[in-house]
Design goal:
This protein has helices spanning 8-18, 23-35, 49-54, 70-80, 90-102, 111-128. α1 packs across α6. The protein is built from 6 helices and no strands. It is 56% helix and 0% strand. The protein has one domain (8-128).
Amino acid sequence: MRGDMGTENGLVAVMQTLFAGDENELDDTAQVWNTHYIRSREYVFHGRPVNMYLYPDLFNAEEHIRQVDDHVLHFCRSECAEEDEYPCEEEIFELGCIYMEENLLKPPENVDQSRALYLSLRRWFIQQL
């Protein structure tokens, strides 16, 4: 199970899983994410994510982009590629399906529904521990 569940990264990962076949929805989500403004906080860089990524020098940040050999990239892709029909561990997927069936829930069709499903599944999984 992911260690960043409940964070923005965890939510984005869930949305990527749920919208695996809907590139337009993913593109829309990425556009909204990249154009929102990260507020200024102590010891935290702030600005628009896309600008912070593309122009780290403007934010007095280090550029962490590194060249990666093709064989390393291929290995990483093969390790991350989902080779089966489940977007997570099969048992977790099956439990999620049981929860959805018991609560008469349908697969989400947009980001808001995905977020609501993610949050309800997360609460339910935590209660089951």
